[in-house]
Amino acid sequence: MNTAVNTLDKKLKKIIAVYDDGSTEQIEKGVLTKMSEVLNDNTINFTFEFLNTKNGEIIDFVDAVVRLGVQFGIIE
Known about the structure:
- Helix content is 22%, strand content 38%.
- By secondary structure, the chain is an alpha+beta fold.
């Protein structure tokens, strides 16, 4: 499976999480990740939008995702 990673030229202003119990939370700093369905060419497109993050914090995000992969047993 191929993966295409994109970022948008627009600047993200707000992320609001709405939970199944009806409660909400406004995220002050984070990453919004959108994932497409598998396309005809067997590609999945991912779009990453960053909210109030600095370049050095993106390294922390990538590190956390790798650690999550290790925790799930996907990465050794």
